[in-house]
Design goal:
8-stranded antiparallel β-barrel, 10% helix, elongated
């Protein structure tokens, strides 16, 4: 498969696979529902020198949503060239609007457990903490939300 076709397919898959499903109502406070939510994310790792690599990055988080706030915890797998990371994640997300379609901001922290690939034992990578933040947009698609 040529590189352009692979890049297009991976890009389309990333957009479609980053879903967020609203679950059952857990409780309510001040007439706002507390809901159980799940998020599955999948993408391709991009190398600064090689571009799209075809190696996958996935994560699954579960948590609670109250109003515009969501707090979740989960784990994932990131397949890099020389090692594989298994992050244990915490994520805090805030939707800017109270509608089904809204921009959002998020921050996360993770402890990354590292598994060295056998062919690359001469590299000295270690497990450790990681943090990040970002912005995105959520669209509602009939009960399932799609994130960008």
């Amino acid at each position: 498969m040529n590189s352009m076709k692979t890049s297009f397919l991976v890009g389309a898959f990333i957009l479609l696979a980053h879903t967020y499903c609203n679950g059952q109502r857990v409780d309510s406070i001040n007439n706002k529902n507390i809901r159980w939510v799940n998020s599955f994310q999948m993408g391709s790792i991009v190398d600064k020198n090689k571009g799209l690599t075809g190696r996958l990055s996935t994560s699954y988080l579960s948590g609670l949503n109250y109003g515009k706030w969501t707090l979740g915890a989960g784990s994932g797998i990131d397949d890099y060239e020389y090692f594989i990371l298994f992050p244990a994640l915490l994520e805090l997300k805030y939707n800017l609007f109270s509608s089904n379609n809204s921009p959002f901001v998020y921050t996360y922290g993770a402890y990354n457990f590292l598994l060295q690939k056998p062919d690359f034992n001469n590299y000295n990578y270690k497990s450790g903490l990681g943090v990040g933040a970002g912005v995105g947009y959520v669209w509602n698609l009939g009960g399932v939300n799609l994130f960008l």
